[in-house]
Structure formats: structure tokens, C-alpha cells
Amino acid sequence: MWSILDFFPEDFLINILDIGAALSEVPPYHKIIEGRKGKIIGFEPDLTECEKLNQTYGAPHQFFPYFVGNGLPATFYETSWNLTGSLFEPNSSLLGKFQHLLEVVTLVNTHPVETKTIDSILEIESVDLIKIDVQGAELMVFENATRILPNTLVIQTEVEFVELYKNQPLFADVDRFLRSQGFQFHKFLGYGGRTFKPLMTENPYKGNQFLWSDAIYVRDWMKLEELSLMQLKKYAILAHEVVCSLDLTYLILSELDRRAGTNYIGKYEERLFATE
Question: Residue 275: which pLDDT band, with cuts at 50, 70 and 90?
Fold first, then answer.
């Protein structure tokens, strides 16, 4: 999709917190990084992968080999696929009900680890965007990040609808907490699912049971007047470039124009209708 980064030539950076960073995927904020409009603080507990991330991105971005959680000692459950390891134990009896699922979340080993809270990491000063994927431990992270949540504008978090991991918080729990912190649920980014065994279909990844998704939460759009002009600019960029929500972006730019006497809406409409 076309970009609005050139709407804002001012010298500022969007602060991005990536919990569960990985080189194996293109992050949702890649356009902002390519446009030199963002700064990442990320976490990847594997030392080798963490070093690769630091070498790939370079300054001003920083990646740390921390397990992020509630600050207490924990157990890390290593699984057959590195992307499904978790601070929660895989729920094998549930996973085994579905085609092609237990195979990638099979428990391989356990490791005692120390966790850090977001609030205790001094390198994190202010955050505009949180992208998090920690296999069931998302609520634990959020509950220990209340220092930075009040100024955060957009959150992309993985959520589960069933207990893929034993006793993990589910979507309803995450939703309840984030709404209590001043966020509105905005949308899901598709759904992950599998077919129930024993039925084997041509595409077992298209089962009717929704298992997980990435959920987008945004700063309450009923209270845009509480945001500063700089926050509105960052919010508009995130809504367009990361969330791909044209109508939310339009709403934010409208508030920015109302407060600052600018004409961002005129520019946006010109791009929008020219594209159509």
C-alpha cells in the first residue's frame, strides 16, 4: 500500500517494542524502518539469534537476549519448532486433537530461566507500537508493562481462543486487560486453525475451529483530544503503515487538522482517490 511517511518530514522516530523478534518473518513495521522513521527495542532470548538481529538492523536499534515476563524465575518449555517454545507448557492432549499441530508444538526439553519485566528494563523509555508474540505469555508481559502502556498507541498481539498451552490466558483475558488500559479492540489479522482429527482434508490448515490470531488494539479513538500533536502524527503513521486501516487514519488526520490548522486530509484524499 502507498505510504504517508512523506507527509511528515519532521525529524522524529516512532518507538517500537518487539517482544519475540525474529529474522524469519517480515515485521509489520518494516516500512517504517525502511523509511528511517522508527527505532526498535526487541527481545530474542536465543543469544545467537539475538546477535544476528543486532548485526542485521544495527544502530539505533537494540535487541536483548531476555525472557520477558513477570520478573520471577520461570521454566521455558522448548518445543520441536523454535517458534512455539513458551513459558507455558504445551497442552498436548488438546494439540493432539488437530491435524499437523502437535508435531510442531511437541515438548523437547525444559530450561529454568530468569525473566525480566518491561517496566524494569531502563532502556525502554517510551513506546508507540508494541508487537508481541510469546506463545501464551502476552498477558503476563502486559500486566508488568504498566509504566509504558499509557503512552502506547498501537498493539499487535497474538491471542489464543483455546488453551494451546496449559492454563494460559485466552483472548478474553487479554482483551479485558487492554481495554482497562485505554485501548480499543480494532481487528483481527486472519485466523489460525486446523481440522479436527480424524478427518483429513486437502487443506488441514483451514479447519472451522479458530485457534489463534493476531489482534490489533489501538489507543481509544473516542479520546483523540487527549493526545498531543506528535502522538497524533505517530498514530496516523501506525494506523496507515502497520494496521492498514484507512478509515482510522482518516479519523486521526481529521483531529490533527482540527487542532493544528493543517490540511493532511486533503493530501490523504488525493492519494486515496488517485489509488482507487
Answer: low
